[in-house]
Specification:
The structure holds 2 protein chains of 2 kinds.
Chain A lengths: L7 E4 L1 E4 L6 H4 L19 H4 L21 E4 L11 H9 L3 E4 L4 H10 L2 E4 L2 H13 L5 E4 L4 E4 L5 E3 L4 H9 L3 H7 L1 H9 L4
Parallel strand pairs in A: 2-3, 3-4, 4-5
Antiparallel strand pairs in A: 1-6, 6-7, 7-8
Helix pairs in contact in A: 3-4
Chain B lengths: L4 H7 L2 E4 L5 E4 L2 E4 L5 H10 L9 E4 L16 H17 L2 E3 L9 H7 L8 E4 L13 E4 L2 H10 L1 E4 L3 E8 L8 H12 L7 E6 L1 H4 L3 H9 L8 E3 L4 H7 L9 H10 L12 E6 L6 E3 L7 E3 L14 H11 L14 E4 L1 H4 L2 H11 L9 E4 L4 H9 L2 H7 L25 E4 L14 E4 L2 H10 L11
Parallel strand pairs in B: 3-4, 3-6, 4-5, 6-7, 9-10, 9-12, 10-11, 15-16, 15-17, 17-18
Antiparallel strand pairs in B: 1-2, 2-8, 13-14
Classes of the chains: A alpha/beta, B alpha/beta.
Chain lengths: 198, 465
């Protein structure tokens, strides 16, 4: 499925300074029963967000009206565990377009790139700067410029370069997806397959 | 440049490489299950295309299935709908479908090897992170997301950059009571839950070559728990003996041709790895986890580490211990437990049931323990009965359930209640993994058996004859 293009983004951010956030926290397995990609945002961080009687946990950041925005600031090793793309869908469906962390789990990062959520990996020190600024000033804006591959804290001008391969960058900038690419080279694939034992 | 096992298999499957981008990687075999596939099939429908190579695609229902009364209609309407969707999608696209009640039904990573779908030198993917299991046969196997499931269904390829290479050597003699699960949990405790992220791991050393195929599968299965893209081992005679004459393995001259290729699948001397670790197998104890990720494990006789001694964030560590209601410095031995789960793609094979049974034989299940014994497949279930294990288990007060992923991820009714402790042979101890509020202690089938008969965390070495 093609997705919205991502060129740049200037927004406030939601801080979640916890390490090793796994995809079972992002979306618990019992919410994976859908056969369509709808409604996953309601269950983003379900068990951190709600008590068992479905009342909101007031101390969880997504329930704190002070914080909002399209960037989720996560701790080191964000998105570890299960390959469920539902985790990336939940992040997107909730309204985030970018996750910033000092380290991402592999499959989660891939899944984000495949649906148009930009994973931005920054240094641990820069992540600290962002976290501290957002905690002290929840209105602080962060700018992501995909073309320049920079992330900037608007209030201080503090900036870092982030890495993304040219192919994925181009895809994100235009909202292309891998399936379009692969279908276009199908002849090359089928001739490769003809020489591959089953 | 000398090639590693991973290089040989990866490079031979690259359809094309994109400069400063991913490789287009051809996928030999694609395993599909009910949870991560429906949206991918919907994508095909929206594009009005069919599965390109249905004969390379295999579907089984496992994640979202009950483990009791599988002959009856599935009660949960959402689960029933998802299972029905897989059946219809498989039918529409002409894919082998092993649904509930089918003799070949079972956990995707258990049935793949059982039927010879898993082969050395193959590329194998599935929308499930424990696809790394199949690496035990010298395959490149890894979990993918649903967008990638759609790519493989529609084009038999995915687009990923080649991972960096890591080798983990474990040598020496394992102590009595130490199993492949303990070796894997030990490695993860040393590398942490993200220590192998970005790498594809090759396991080497006599500890792995001496393991059974089941043991090797357990090790490769857990590769993802240290963040690795996947893990693999060079195939050897044990591998070839295991797969010979299985339904989907080559026969006759095709077997001979395949063998010629498979025997080339090893890492050449002096090949370079980006990272390499070596461990002495003799120091490994039976392992148990005390926290909320698989890296938080230790020898069963040790004490829970003090926050000041750990790497990483102290607040995250303390949050984890608070969730478990454990304290720094606690001993795990003697802690009362409530549930025992034997099963999953990690430890749901016949060897795991043999180990569990060997320890509980002649003893009784503790009254305070609810035990769920869930075979990984019907074939495992059949072997449990044929080998007489079921009789021993029943005499000890245990009940055998029907195959599936079950309490490993608790999508079905097999949920550990909030606040309860479960000693589980599965792969993840994340918060709520086995049910909202559940507390999981990951361990081997022997440690699980010791807990099941004593009602508390117990060193299995004290019970082994």
């Amino acid at each position: 499925m093609a997705y919205d293009s991502f060129i740049d983004l200037t927004t406030t951010a939601v801080p979640l300074p916890i390490e090793n956030v796994d995809t079972d926290q992002i979306i618990p397995a019992r919410f994976l029963k859908a056969t369509e990609r709808i409604g996953f945002g309601d269950n983003l961080f379900r068990d951190w967000r709600y008590h068992t009687d479905n009342s909101p946990k007031k101390d969880f950041v997504l329930n704190n009206p002070t914080y909002s925005g399209k960037i989720l600031l996560g701790g080191k090793n964000f998105g570890s565990g299960s390959s469920r793309e539902h985790a990336a869908w939940a992040v997107y469906d909730f309204g985030f377009r970018c996750v910033v962390s000092s380290f991402f789990a592999d499959i989660f990062k891939n899944n984000c790139l495949n649906i148009g959520v930009l994973p931005v990996q920054v240094s641990p020190a820069f992540l600290n700067v962002l976290m501290e600024e957002v905690f002290s000033n929840p209105k602080a804006e962060i700018k992501i410029d995909l073309k320049a591959q920079t992330i900037t804290l608007i209030s201080t001008g503090a900036q870092e370069f982030f890495d993304i391969n040219d192919y994925k960058k181009d895809n994100m900038l235009h909202g292309f997806d891998d399936i379009d690419y692969l279908i276009n080279i199908q002849k090359e694939i089928t001739s490769f397959a003809a020489n591959t034992p089953l | 440049m000398k090639k590693t096992l991973f290089d040989k298999v990866w490079d031979s499957h690259v359809v094309r490489s994109i400069e400063n981008g991913p490789d287009v990687l051809f996928i030999d075999r694609h395993m599909v299950h009910e949870v991560t596939s429906p949206v991918a099939f919907l994508g095909l429908k929206n594009r009005n295309i069919k599965v390109l190579y249905p004969e390379r695609t295999f579907a089984t229902a496992d994640h979202n299935t009950p483990t009791l009364n599988q002959h009856l209609p599935v009660e949960d309407p959402l689960s029933a709908k998802q299972l029905k969707a897989l059946e219809e999608n498989a039918h529409t696209h002409g894919i082998s479908y092993w649904g509930l009640g089918h003799e070949k039904n079972g956990i995707v990573h258990v049935v793949g090897p059982e039927y010879g779908i898993t082969q050395p030198g193959a590329t194998i993917v599935c929308g499930d992170s424990h696809t790394s299991t199949h690496g035990a046969f010298g395959a490149i196997a890894f979990g993918i997301g649903t967008s990638e499931v759609e790519m493989v269904l529609s084009t038999q390829c995915i687009m990923q950059p080649k991972a960096k290479k890591m080798r983990i050597n474990v040598t020496g003699s394992l102590q009595k009571g130490v199993t492949s699960k303990d070796v894997a949990l030990f490695i993860i405790s040393k590398l942490s839950t993200s220590g192998a992220t970005g790498y594809f791991v090759e396991y080497a050393g006599n500890v792995f070559s001496e393991m059974s195929m089941e043991g090797r599968m357990t090790v490769c299965n857990l590769s993802i728990e240290m963040g690795a893209r996947g893990g693999m081992m060079a195939p050897d005679q044990k591998t070839f003996n295991y797969i010979k004459d299985r339904e989907f393995t080559p026969k006759g001259t095709a077997w001979d041709t395949a063998m010629t290729y498979w025997k080339t699948l090893y890492t050449e001397a002096n090949a370079i790895f980006d990272k390499e670790y070596s461990f002495d197998g003799a120091v490994i104890e039976p392992m148990i986890t005390y926290g909320t990720n698989p890296g938080m494990g230790m020898g069963i006789s040790k004490d829970i580490p003090m926050a000041k001694d750990i790497e990483g964030g102290v607040s995250t560590y303390q949050k984890s211990l608070a969730y478990m209601n454990f304290n720094e410095g606690d001993s795990m031995l003697g802690k009362t437990i409530d549930y025992v789960f034997l099963g999953s793609c990690t430890n749901g094979r016949i060897e795991d049931f043999r180990a569990f049974t060997s320890l509980v034989k002649g003893k009784k299940k503790a009254d305070n323990v609810t035990a769920w014994l869930v075979p990984g497949s019907h074939q495992v279930e059949k072997a449990i009965k044929e080998e007489g294990l079921l009789t021993i288990l029943e005499e000890a007060g245990f009940v055998l359930r029907e195959p599936g992923c079950s309490a490993c991820l608790a999508m079905n009714d097999d949920k550990v209640p909030a606040g309860k402790y479960a000693v589980s042979t599965s792969n993840r101890n994340f918060e709520g993994r086995q049910g909202p509020g559940s507390r999981t202690l990951l361990a081997s089938p022997l440690v699980a058996a010791a807990a099941a008969v004593t009602g508390k965390v117990t060193d299995p070495r004290t019970l082994l004859s």
